[in-house]
Amino acid sequence: MALPVERTASRRECKVKDMLQADFGRLEIELAEDQMPALMSCRSVFGPSQPLKGARITGSVHMTIQTAVLIESLTALGAEVRWCSCSTFSTQDHAAAAIARDSAAVFAWKGETPQEYWRCIERALDWGPGGVPDLIIDDGGDATLLIHEGVKAEEAYENARNLPDPASTDNLELQIVLTIIRDGMKTDRTRYHKIKERLVGVSEATATAVERLYGMQANGTLLFPVINVNDSVIKTKFQNLCGCRPSGHDGLMTATDVEIAGKVAVVCGFGDVTKDCTAALKKAGACVIVTEIDPIQALQALMEGILVLTLEDVVSEADIFAVTAGGSKGIITIDHMRKMKNNAIVCNIGPFNNAIDMPGLETFPGVKRITFNPQTDRWVFPDTESGVIVLAEGRLVNLGCATGHPSLATASCSFANHVMAQLELWMERDTGKYEKKVYALPKHLDEKVASLHLGKLGAKLTKLSKEHAD
């Protein structure tokens, strides 16, 4: 079933929760603009020449106030934009309403079902009869995934007249994807090939999705160029220095209204996000334990005074379990949750929904779900009357249960990287510079994003003499 949509007074398509929140959204957008100097500088520097004029951009990124500034920066540079969120719970409804009314087609609201979520992505890719996007801004790779699955299904039909079979997989989300593709093929059996043929490229901002794309490049299945903005220097260094990688601390506090001080918190994961999360929890007063797979990361944690144990060592003792191993499957299982103390808090700080065994929890015989407030549920096991509190249904907690896009430290850097990548792909679309591969954001564009911040922050660069430069 297609997603029913509405039209604004300017005839722009949309599906948002409440258009009456648009004025409130506009007020917050104006406040955020002052804290996002790189994007505002992009408008003043590039806006007059309209470098994205004629470009159709589909975005699949958390529909927050900060994302609204990104969208309006793209339109200020001449692009036409259609947008959806990359998470079922991350949309700020007042931001979606303001953009839908004023700037771009938006299909996003907080609390989408998985079916609605994928229908929103499909709608964001639909530019009307015969219309497809030129560029994609992705965060998590779901829009990219839908296109690749669609092309694969169309080729299977062309070769053997086989329609996609949702029953061929036990993965719920893939079942939904295959259903959408199958339904669409009833009226257009070449839709995703049309997208593939026109698409100039994608900019992607999530580590797990980038790794998946590198894998597709290696096996020859990547359909178009991708610029990896996740690993740009300006994003990783600036966010880490500011301590603003998604720690989930704000999501925990907002969702549960509990004091973290004195609690035993287990961080399950690896790498920089784990380090940032442990720092945030320690600062809040928690006793933090880390589970690790990497000996170097484990040694670093020990040198910083953090215990490194296995989940099985502490599953019955800890108060908070935060998964930072984004994209990994089955980090916390139903068996783990059965062994946890009553009212232990379980959350996922990674961008995907398979790290915590939610299907196992939801289908456990006799389990009761008690909703305290949106995205905060207590699941009670029938034999023990003991329960665990799961945040954001096992999905991204900092945006599901709080507003996890700090305007300056996170959004201004990351989103300006997206703009630079989109400009690069569009301006080089006819030169053959970018093949069907994954590329790092060029260094000079990374430096450009940094320089666009400096004036707002009161900095003046020292210029090298020729002797020094030599």
Automatic annotation (TrEMBL):
<dbReference type="Pfam" id="PF05221">
    <property type="entry name" value="AdoHcyase"/>
</dbReference>
<feature type="binding site">
    <location>
        <position position="405"/>
    </location>
    <ligand>
        <name>NAD(+)</name>
    </ligand>
</feature>
<dbReference type="Pfam" id="PF00670">
    <property type="entry name" value="AdoHcyase_NAD"/>
</dbReference>
<comment type="pathway">
    <text>Amino-acid biosynthesis; L-homocysteine biosynthesis; L-homocysteine from S-adenosyl-L-homocysteine: step 1/1.</text>
</comment>
<feature type="binding site">
    <location>
        <position position="292"/>
    </location>
    <ligand>
        <name>NAD(+)</name>
    </ligand>
</feature>
<dbReference type="InterPro" id="IPR036291">
    <property type="entry name" value="NAD(P)-bd_dom_sf"/>
</dbReference>
<protein>
    <recommendedName>
        <fullName>adenosylhomocysteinase</fullName>
        <ecNumber>3.13.2.1</ecNumber>
    </recommendedName>
</protein>
<feature type="domain" description="S-adenosyl-L-homocysteine hydrolase NAD binding">
    <location>
        <begin position="240"/>
        <end position="404"/>
    </location>
</feature>
<dbReference type="InterPro" id="IPR000043">
    <property type="entry name" value="Adenosylhomocysteinase-like"/>
</dbReference>
<dbReference type="GO" id="GO:0006730">
    <property type="term" value="P:one-carbon metabolic process"/>
</dbReference>
<keyword id="KW-0378">Hydrolase</keyword>
<dbReference type="InterPro" id="IPR042172">
    <property type="entry name" value="Adenosylhomocyst_ase-like_sf"/>
</dbReference>
<feature type="binding site">
    <location>
        <begin position="206"/>
        <end position="208"/>
    </location>
    <ligand>
        <name>NAD(+)</name>
    </ligand>
</feature>
<comment type="similarity">
    <text>Belongs to the adenosylhomocysteinase family.</text>
</comment>
<dbReference type="InterPro" id="IPR015878">
    <property type="entry name" value="Ado_hCys_hydrolase_NAD-bd"/>
</dbReference>
<keyword id="KW-0554">One-carbon metabolism</keyword>
<keyword id="KW-0520">NAD</keyword>
<feature type="binding site">
    <location>
        <position position="398"/>
    </location>
    <ligand>
        <name>NAD(+)</name>
    </ligand>
</feature>
<dbReference type="GO" id="GO:0004013">
    <property type="term" value="F:adenosylhomocysteinase activity"/>
</dbReference>
